[in-house]
Design a protein that fits this description.
heterodimer; B: alpha+beta; 4 strands; 13% strand
Chain lengths: 169, 188
């Protein structure tokens, strides 16, 4: 890459695409777990990275960029879920594609269905913690809440999940 | 006995893995039109002519190119990966494409500027799609099993005329069994 390219907006191609290559898949999986259908999940993540691309001049630092896309993905998922609750949108809240059903056994689906019934914040905290393996600090930044709230939300979520699964036994 | 956290972690990982790849990042002039899944799963358009090549042999024979081609959507390129038990390509060495080989192929695909979107389709998913596509032909479906159709990468290009450099770049990579190019009109 020559000096000319570095001075150009849009973003430094290699850094942005490294971020994309490194994180788009994980975030798409996260969004899929949140919203339940693949197309929406892909759209949410693409939108998030598009937002990052447009704001690159202020988000050039890797940490800031990651916080941004994670928050953007969470917000995108929230919007998608809200739209789905509108009265004129029909269909089940979550659709397992035929292929996903083949690959994810019934036992695991039970856990995921219970997860989906949790309050939104608990669901988000648990997915960030147990799927993306983010630290409390990273979760706090992505969800824009305090570390203390992350801690309490996570433990409540785990407890509630445990109860729901037990009730189904 | 698994704790709730362990079960959750396990279930989330499994759910996540149903997505194997993401499209290449596109700065849209128009939004995502080429990536619409509607085209991907619209298997009603699958060429039925390929049916003649699916024999009732119980899947012991490797799939011929025309048979695989019947599963490839118009406008797509499918890169079928080596699957030891069903490939006839000697370059596969009678073994499955390794994880490293698949990663290298994916990396290569994602580096090609002509590629607009790439999706990994596992053999299980391909089988489900095949079952749906040929649901009116139960004899055919019962003669085929998971593994007759290998794992593949499904590619969509920015411009359908650009397939030659793409197929040239991927041909011969370790782990690649066949490449089926449905971007042009078939002249047969």
């Amino acid at each position: 890459m020559n000096a000319e390219a570095v001075r150009l907006h849009p973003p430094n191609e290699s850094t942005f695409s490294e971020l994309y290559q490194g994180h788009a898949l994980g975030l798409t999986r996260l969004a899929f777990i949140m919203v339940g259908d693949r197309q929406t999940a892909e759209d949410v993540v693409q939108e998030a990275f598009l937002g990052l691309y447009r704001r690159w001049s202020s988000l050039r630092e890797r940490d800031k960029a990651l916080v941004y896309v994670r928050s953007a993905v969470l917000n995108g998922c929230r919007s998608a879920l809200r739209r789905r609750r509108l009265p004129f949108v029909s269909g089940p809240a979550h659709v397992w594609s035929a292929e996903a059903e083949v690959m994810v056994g019934e036992d695991r689906r039970e856990v995921l269905e219970a997860l989906r019934r949790l309050p939104l914040r608990q669901k988000e905290a648990l997915i960030l913690r147990y799927f993306l393996d983010l630290s409390e600090e990273e979760i706090a930044a992505a969800m824009r809440i305090s570390k203390g709230t992350v801690k309490s939300t996570t433990s409540r979520g785990v407890a509630a999940l445990g109860r729901m699964i037990e009730e189904n036994q | 006995m698994n704790t709730t956290e362990e079960r959750l972690h396990d279930a989330l990982r499994a759910a996540g893995e149903t997505i194997e790849a993401v499209p290449a990042f596109v700065v849209p002039a128009r939004r995502f039109t080429l990536r619409r899944i509607a085209a991907f799963v619209s298997v009603a358009a699958v060429v039925i002519a390929g049916v003649a090549f699916w024999s009732g042999s119980g899947g012991k024979e490797p799939l011929s190119s025309p048979a695989l081609a019947s599963l490839v959507e118009p406008g797509e390129i499918s890169v079928f990966l080596c699957l030891g038990r069903s490939t006839s390509n000697p370059a596969c060495g009678h073994r499955d494409a390794t994880v490293a080989e698949k990663a290298a192929i994916q990396q290569k695909i994602m580096s090609l500027p002509q590629v607009n979107a790439v999706e990994y389709e596992s053999k299980e998913k391909a089988f489900v799609r095949f079952m749906h596509a040929f649901r009116n032909k139960p004899g055919l479906v019962s003669a085929t099993k998971v593994g007759d159709i290998p794992d593949s990468f499904r590619l969509r290009l920015r411009n359908q005329g650009l397939s030659q450099p793409v197929t040239a770049a991927i041909t011969g990579m370790p782990g690649v069994d066949q490449i089926v190019d449905e971007t042009r009109q078939r002249h047969n």
